Structure formats: C-alpha cells, structure tokens
C-alpha cells in the first residue's frame, strides 16, 4: 500500500502550499503516450521521472531526473552536472527503495533524503500544467507548472538529449 502513502504525501504537500491541481483516476497505463491520451493532455505535459545512479570523481549519488515525457534524457549530461563521470538508470530494487513506486508511477517529487531532485528547464516553459502518475499507474495529478516549480524546487539542469 505504499502507493497510497506516496499519494497522501503528495496531496498533503500540495495542499500545504495551496497548489493548483486536480486528481484523475484512470485505467492502468504505464507508457507516456497511453496515459496522455487517457488524461486528455499533450505528451509534452507529462513530467517523466528517471531514477539515475551517478558515479565517478568520488561521487555516488542517486538522482531523480524530471523531463517532459516527449523527450529523452542524456545521462552523461546528468552525470557531469552532478560532478560524476557516468550515470545509469537505477535498478528496479533501487527505484522501489528510493521512491516506493514502480517504474512509470514515480511522481516528480523526492521524499527520500538520498534522492536528489533535478529537472530540465524545458519542463517549465511549454505548458501551464504538468501531468504525472501519482505513485500508482491508476492515478494522475495535473498540477499548475509554476506551483510545481515552487513546491518541488528542483535543481535545474539541462539534460535533454539533443536530436540530430
């Protein structure tokens, strides 16, 4: 039942900050394209979270990297921004320990002291609202973009892969 714990933490945090958001219950959807259709949102409004493990230069840091769902991450940019030399996606076990969520259900907030939250600045300039799975694949939150930035306060790092 950790999904309800995460959902409750999220809604309490958003309510404490008077954030503008709404909750949407829906059928299970793990892929960004599927859930955007169900939500009635643009794919780029999705706030996709990747749990990464950065290593090298004496750094060992887990990072929750948030980016628009229609973009891909450049893990080397994440590694260099944190001060490491390489980054990889965390294992399912690490993801579960650090987020208490399954892949695809990770909200763009870190509730774990060892999980550093970063976001690509592109997330904040294209849409007035962001959408994300709220700790479960059956529930989404659609949140005002400015409120997300204020409440989550992620470190801004440009790490979207440039398409050639």
TrEMBL record:
Gene3D superfamilies from the UniProt entry: YbaK/aminoacyl-tRNA synthetase-associated domain
Protein name: YbaK/prolyl-tRNA synthetase associated domain-containing protein
Domain spans labelled YbaK/aminoacyl-tRNA synthetase-associated: 27-150
Coiled coil residues, start to end: none
InterPro entries in alphabetical order: PROXY, YbaK/aa-tRNA-synt-asso_dom_sf, YbaK/aa-tRNA-synth-assoc-dom
GO function term, MF aspect, one: aminoacyl-tRNA deacylase activity
One Pfam family this sequence matches: tRNA_edit
Recorded superkingdom: Bacteria
């Amino acid at each position: 039942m950790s999904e309800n714990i995460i959902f409750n933490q999220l809604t309490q945090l958003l309510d404490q900050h008077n954030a503008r958001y709404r909750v949407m219950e829906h059928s299970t959807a793990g892929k960004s394209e599927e859930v955007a259709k169900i939500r009635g949102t643009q794919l780029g409004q999705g706030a996709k979270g990747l749990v990464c493990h950065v290593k090298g230069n004496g750094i060992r840091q887990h990072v929750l990297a948030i980016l628009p769902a229609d973009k891909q991450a450049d893990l080397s940019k994440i590694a260099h921004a944190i001060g490491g030399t390489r980054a990889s996606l965390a294992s399912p076990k690490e993801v579960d320990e650090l987020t208490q969520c399954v892949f695809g259900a990770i909200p763009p907030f870190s509730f774990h002291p060892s999980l550093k939250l970063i976001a690509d600045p592109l997330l904040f300039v294209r849409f007035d609202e962001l959408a994300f799975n709220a700790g479960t694949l059956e529930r989404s939150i659609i949140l005002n973009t400015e409120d997300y930035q204020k409440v989550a306060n992620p470190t801004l790092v440009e790490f979207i892969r440039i398409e050639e």
